[in-house]
Amino acid sequence: MRVNEIFYSLQGEGHHTGRAAIFVRLAGCNLACPFCDTDFRHFSEMSDEEVVEAILQLVPYDVESQSPRLPMIVLTGGEPTLQDTAPLIEQLHRKGFFVSMETNGTHRPPANIDWITFSPKTPKMGNTRQPAVLSRCNELKLVYTGDDEEPGLFDHFPADHYYLQPCDTGDDQQNIHILKACIAYIQAHPRWHLSLQVHKIAGFK
Prior knowledge:
Layout: E1 2-10, E2 20-26, E3 44-45, H1 48-58, E4 72-76, H2 86-94, E5 99-103, E6 115-118, E7 137-144, H3 149-152, E8 159-166, H4 172-188, E9 193-194, H5 198-202
Parallel strand pairs: 2-4, 4-5, 5-6, 6-7, 7-8, 8-9
Antiparallel strand pairs: 1-2, 1-3
Helix pairs in contact: 1-2
């Protein structure tokens, strides 16, 4: 596995916001989104067993019972479907973990994943190369740039939950404008829910 980093935090976005999570960030991506704020280019080569061991080192244990309190595992990137994660997921399942994956949907995720967060990238976001091949997901989380046409592209995509997440442009005034537009869109289209990047607001990774 080409691993950028493994760290323990809280899920900061979408349906599982606030839930304790161990993130396994895998290196490499097949898209080049202009708003991407993640450095996924650098990596270390790790075996599945080494990844599992690194995860176990981060799991907190109850002092009295010595039984693990298992956070969720989030496989993210970059684009995690570019690597074969099925054997790793199988090992994590044997340890009792719930495993989720965040993907741009341009490659099919492994069949044994527990939760799929589909974050589609449209041509207006700079994705002119790779169409999505994903056919359904647990959670569709669209980065909202202020373009009202883009959410409508996914109104009929099969998902259990639909989230709009205001794009962080790095410009405070532009971010305020996008947030207000996002709220107005959701009020007019109640299928969508608001997803904020809580980790940036609260100051955790």
